[in-house]
Design a protein that fits this description.
The complex is a heterotrimer of chains A (349), B (259) and C (287).
Chain A lengths: L1 H21 L6 E6 L6 H11 L2 E6 L3 H10 L7 E5 H9 L33 E7 L2 E4 L23 E4 L2 H11 L9 H14 L3 E5 L3 H6 L5 E4 L1 H10 L4 E3 L5 E2 L1 E6 L7 H11 L2 H11 L14 H7 L9 E2 L6 H18 L2
Parallel strand pairs in A: 1-2, 1-3, 6-7, 6-8, 10-12
Antiparallel strand pairs in A: 3-11, 4-11, 5-8, 5-9
Chain B lengths: L1 H29 L16 H8 L1 H32 L5 H15 L2 H15 L5 H25 L4 H8 L4 H30 L2 H6 L7 H10 L4 H29 L1
Helix pairs in contact in B: 2-11, 3-6, 3-8, 4-6, 6-8, 7-8
Chain C lengths: L7 H4 L4 H21 L3 E2 L5 E2 L5 H6 L2 H33 L3 H12 L6 H12 L4 H8 L13 H26 L2 H9 L4 H12 L1 H17 L2 H7 L6 H10 L4 H26 L9
Antiparallel strand pairs in C: 1-2
Helix pairs in contact in C: 4-8, 4-11, 6-12, 8-11, 8-12, 9-10, 11-14, 13-14
Classes of the chains: A alpha/beta (349), B mainly alpha (259), C mainly alpha (287).
């Protein structure tokens, strides 16, 4: 008897939280899943006012976290995901992405073809490009005594403890590979190992590794050189116009963050409505102006202010030179992992 | 000589306490920062408090956190107390093993727990949401209640419940009327600690949170990654204020009851 | 039936919910982690059900084994500093009047209620280049250039000690509180100096509190990783960071599981040693 009482009690306690979830409003919803602050608040508000759809903004910290969650829900729960190219490829391969209903997104025609047909979506059936970008080196000439022309310049001894780089295995290993004249995606284990050895000698120059807000460290003089994503380049220049931007001579990287609708999205129609909304020329220009990535919306070009082009200083013409970072074989991936761990540990020494 | 010895401890306590409060005071001051940056000063302003009260997402997250902390500390209170009472009677090797495993959640680093929950719930086909959060939080709340209640039981005067039995009370009544009131302070302080831990947990929550159930610490954590705004400082200031008010109130009430 | 309740086997039934919860939601996931650590990763994503010992072999690689060492080093230094600061605090606190004890207890516990991450931001504001500390020191003429304290090992140490100090204080406090002072007096009466009485009596009697404080600071500091990230600029590779990287960037779940299994074993070993040395089964002072 008592035993059953206890079990029943335990069960009640376990079911209790479910009750809270049962009562949900019948209001139209759109659950967006991306990094914090990546879609401007005012754009979401304007969309909510125009359509009456309530947008729930969910954030993840890394692409991998997103995919793990999406896998747990079998491509359900979330309506619209904004993530990076390589993870979209994986999600697509696992069948977690639903094909876009193009009829519901007439504004798809506004996408600049320059930003379409990439490896993660060769037939343009699954994704809408949102934020394409090229990582660049930015430095403060008043606090740097050597000349910086590319990745190799970062090894200069005068830059001791003064560089900020992004905390990303493949980007960092990638630029070391570029200094050896290799591709980001090389499968040659010896070359990757060489790049790893070379990175170890860079460690004394690294002041910090960070994912976000790296430009802030440049602006508040915590570092004098930084490897930045496109939006950070623009923000850094806005904060201090005297900063210098370097297009590394060894070769450029390139990446696209794009939106997709998961295969079991509960409110896919609302996701299409949102996609169509942001692909509008004016809205698109407004977004690009705020997130400061390249603008993939050709209808938006006429609405972009002069200052935008100025601060960004990157044009579509650089894109053919940029190289994507793509998945490599298990052995190469393991080696990347290993040399990057060694590099980070060396930075802390 | 004697005077000197009595002054030093007070200075020491004062200095260390002051040091622990420096970052908190800075957090509070920066909640009145006019600048958008959480680290650079731009003059005084109340804008962030105004903005905070308009931020429905943040309040939703706060509500989720409080509901979650209440439920998991309550569940831990029941399971942990019953467990401690029951286990006090078991002295077998197996019981020792169960005790070890049940206290593991606070003995191993949080990231491990988060990771195993994420993998395990996916394996079970449990979708992330309030339920997974509740299970995860309950698992690390139980040990706090369990250990504190057990410590109380060990120090308990066993003759009291026995006296009740001798006077004809049933076992359950003896427990309910005699033992339970005696261990109540332990249960409450265990639950309070569990509540605080649940309310502040980031690591485990990040792994098992779902689309509709973001908790406040998770929200703060993801926001920090894109630079926290003084809005978060404002929220923490309010929470701190609420804590002080609650603790002071309970102190006053406690005094009244005593006198 | 009611009468049987408090008889030895009967009352044990109260523990059934605990046993069941532990079995399903603690032991279950742990066993799954153990299994996972012997499986093979899928080259792109996920896990292949193929037995392997590679994940454990990989840990022996100096690059990965080194993270255990640096975690150990950081955890030991954190614990040592916390003990040095926290012991006198807990000791002095226990000797205050009841009224002040309560007040101080509240002041020690309240910071728990401010989000730990936000408190770390307080330290960033203090430590950063041209931040509050730099301004203060340069204003006083102690230094003439920014100290560049942020993103250094000492900054990480400060953050760790700061986060874990309350555990040590409360542990020491509770054991000093319970102490039988007549023993110290007896030692003094027998002619022991103050220092000698402290070492031979007080230190021994408060040892359980000290040890539980040590455990309560040491174990979390082995796994805390966000402090090293936020105050260390991502440069300090600890096991916690490595596990996180394996999960969320390298996508190597089996390796992460193997790292976690070893870390769990290490933690268990320390707990076992603690119980062996002190013969204390419960951690003191967390109430």
């Amino acid at each position: 008897m008592k035993k059953w009482l206890c079990i029943a009690l335990a069960l009640v306690l376990c079911v209790l939280p479910l009750a809270g979830c049962g009562a949900q409003a019948e209001k139209e919803e759109l659950i967006v899943y991306t990094w914090t602050g990546y879609i401007p608040d005012d754009v979401i508000q304007a969309f909510e006012e125009e359509t009456g759809i309530n947008v729930i903004y969910n954030s993840f910290e890394t692409n991998e976290e997103m995919l793990a969650k999406l896998e747990n829900t079998n491509g359900g729960e979330y309506d619209l995901v904004l993530a990076s190219d390589y993870i979209i490829k994986l999600a697509g391969d696992k069948g977690l992405i639903g094909e876009l209903d193009k009829e519901q997104i007439p504004n798809l025609k506004n996408i600049d073809p320059l930003y379409q047909g990439f490896f993660y979506d060769p037939e343009n059936k699954l994704t809408v490009p949102y934020a394409p970008g090229i990582p660049l080196i930015v430095y403060d000439p008043s606090r740097v005594s050597c000349e910086i022309t590319g990745y190799s310049s970062l090894w200069d001894p005068s830059l001791k403890d003064s560089i900020a780089v992004m905390d990303s295995t493949r980007v960092i290993n990638g630029f070391a590979l570029k200094t050896l004249g290799e591709s980001f995606n090389t499968e040659d284990l010896d070359k990757i190992r060489q790049a790893g050895d070379k990175l170890l000698t860079l460690a004394p120059n690294i002041r910090l590794l960070s994912v976000d807000q790296t430009h802030e460290y440049l602006l508040n003089e915590e570092v004098s050189v930084a490897l930045l994503f496109t939006s950070q380049v623009a923000l850094a220049l806005q904060g201090n116009p005297n900063l210098k931007v370097v297009y590394p001579t060894e070769g450029l990287g390139f990446g696209v963050d794009a939106m997709f609708v998961p295969s079991q999205a509960p409110n896919a129609d609302n996701a299409y409505a949102f996609l169509n909304y942001i692909l509008d020329g004016k809205v698109g220009a407004h977004i690009s102006e705020q997130i400061l990535y390249l603008c993939p919306n050709q209808a938006a070009y006429e609405f972009l202010p002069e200052a935008f082009a100025d601060s960004l200083k990157i044009t579509g013409s650089d894109i053919p030179n940029g190289e994507f970072i793509m998945d490599v074989s298990a052995d190469a991936a393991e080696l990347h992992n290993q040399i990057y761990t060694a590099f980070k540990a060396a930075c802390g020494q | 000589m004697k005077k000197k010895a009595s002054v030093f401890p007070k200075i020491y306590l004062g200095v260390i306490l002051a040091l622990t409060y420096v970052p908190i005071i800075i957090v509070i001051i920066y909640s009145f920062n006019a600048s958008k940056s959480a680290t650079a000063w731009g003059g005084w302003s109340l804008d962030w408090y105004a903005k905070l009260f308009r931020n429905a997402d943040l309040f939703d997250a706060l509500k989720n956190s409080v509901v979650l902390a209440l439920m998991s500390s309550l569940a831990a209170g029941v399971i942990g107390t019953a467990g401690a009472v029951g286990m006090a009677r078991c002295k077998s090797r197996l019981a020792g093993a169960v005790e070890y495993v049940s206290t593991l959640p606070i003995m191993i680093p949080e990231i491990i727990l988060g990771m195993v929950f994420m993998a395990f719930f996916t394996l079970l086909g449990l979708k992330f949401g309030m339920l997974t959060l509740f299970l995860g939080h309950t698992s690390f709340c139980i040990p706090y209640v369990y250990m504190i209640v057990k410590a109380r039981l060990v120090g308990l005067d066993k003759s009291l419940p026995e006296a009740a039995r001798d006077l004809g009370a049933s076992g359950f009544r003896a427990f309910w009327d005699v033992t339970l009131p005696l261990i109540m302070p332990g249960i409450l302080s265990g639950m309070l600690l569990a509540f605080a831990m649940s309310l502040d947990d980031v690591v485990i929550s990040i792994f098992v949170t779902g689309a509709r159930t973001v908790t406040l610490p998770v929200k703060i954590y993801t926001q920090i990654k894109t630079g926290i705004t003084p809005e978060i400082n404002a929220l923490c200031t309010l929470m701190l204020l609420a804590t002080f008010v609650l603790v002071t109130l309970s102190g006053i009430l406690g005094k009244k009851r005593n006198s | 039936m009611k009468k049987r309740f408090l008889k030895k086997p009967g009352a044990g039934i109260a523990a059934v919910p605990l046993w069941m919860f532990t079995l399903v939601f603690v032991a279950g996931p742990m066993v799954y982690m153990l299994i996972l650590s012997f499986l093979t990763r899928d080259p792109s994503w996920g896990v292949v059900n193929e037995f392997t010992l590679d994940n454990y072999a990989k840990i022996l690689n100096p690059v990965y084994a080194g993270t255990y060492l640096s975690s150990l080093k950081l955890a030991l230094s954190t614990t040592a500093i916390t003990l040095v600061i926290g012991y006198p605090f807990g000791y002095f606190m226990a000797r205050l009047s009841e009224k002040w004890k309560k007040r101080l207890m509240m002041l020690v516990v309240v910071p728990f209620w401010t989000n730990a991450l936000v408190r770390m931001y307080g330290w960033i504001i203090i430590f950063r280049s041209n931040g509050l500390l730099d301004k203060l020191l340069m204003g006083l003429g102690v230094t003439d250039a920014p100290l560049r304290l942020l993103y250094t090992y000492p900054a990480v140490l400060v953050g760790m000690v700061y986060a874990l100090l309350p555990f040590m204080i409360l542990s020491v406090y509770s054991s000093v509180e319970k102490m039988d002072w007549s023993l110290v007096e007896a030692a003094r009466d027998l002619g022991a100096s103050k220092a000698r009485a402290f070492w031979t009596v007080t230190a021994k009697l408060t040892l359980p509190g000290v040890l539980s404080g040590v455990i309560l600071t040491f174990i979390p500091s082995m796994g805390l990783f966000f402090i090293a990230d936020v105050l260390g600029g991502g440069k300090f590779m600890l096991v916690g960071n490595l596990i996180r990287d394996q999960l969320f960037s390298a996508r190597d779940w089996p390796f992460a599981a193997a790292l976690a299994v070893i870390l769990t074993l290490l933690t268990t070993l320390f707990l076992w040693l603690y119980r062996k040395i002190t013969h204390v089964r419960d951690l003191e002072g967390i109430l």
